[in-house]
Design goal:
By secondary structure, the protein is of the alpha/beta class. The chain has two domains: 4-62, no CATH class; 79-163, ACT domain (Alpha-Beta Plaits), CATH 3.30.70. Helix content is 33%, strand content 30%. A four-stranded antiparallel β-sheet has the order 6-7-5-8. Strand 6 (106-115) and strand 7 (118-126) form a beta hairpin. Helix 4 packs across helix 7 (157-163). 17% of the residues are buried.
Length: 166
């Protein structure tokens, strides 16, 4: 069976407020997930090759990834995981940590590795003291990304906990 990539272009072609069953052989890009969220499109990820109908997959008794993540993300912001990856040069970690500090985030843990000329860092950050929500904090940090230099990604730690509840 061939793996399929669901892109933002695929989601853009779908009806607003619709549902799509996604099986384990489909990879959904982050841009596709974001566009689906904005357009009210529910991605039903069942984890198995889909042989059931769309109605069965969307039954009120089935719990989708979206349902689990929504349950976990209810409540106040907590901790985020920040990664920075790119070509190594002096000052990358300083830039990332300074931006977190300016946003009043509290760095709980940090790991850094330089491998074959590439910089890799992962930071666990408590954003509760900042008073900002996840989206505002994420958007501010992502402005550091410059594809020719390094890329910053931010994920709510609660999403990782939700993945293990499926």
């Amino acid at each position: 069976m061939t793996r399929r990539i669901l892109t933002a272009e695929d989601v853009a072609a779908m009806e607003i407020d619709s549902r799509l069953v996604v099986n384990e052989m489909t990879t959904v890009t982050s841009a596709a997930r974001e566009l689906a969220r904005r357009r009210g499109i529910v991605l039903v990820e069942d984890g198995f090759p889909s042989t059931e109908s769309l109605e069965d997959a969307a039954s009120p008794t089935s719990k989708t990834t979206l349902d689990v993540v929504s349950e976990v993300l209810d409540g106040p912001p907590g901790r985020i995981i920040v990664t920075a990856v790119g070509v190594n040069r002096p000052g990358i970690l300083s830039e990332v940590t300074a931006a977190i500090g300016q946003l009043s985030g509290d760095i709980i843990d940090v790991g850094q590795l330089i491998n074959a000329g590439y910089f890799n860092a992962i930071l666990l950050v408590d954003i509760a003291p900042s008073g900002q929500n996840f989206t505002a904090f994420r958007d501010a940090l992502q402005k550091l990304s410059k594809p020719a230099d390094y890329v910053v990604t931010i994920i709510d730690e609660r999403v990782f906990h939700a993945m293990h509840r499926l």
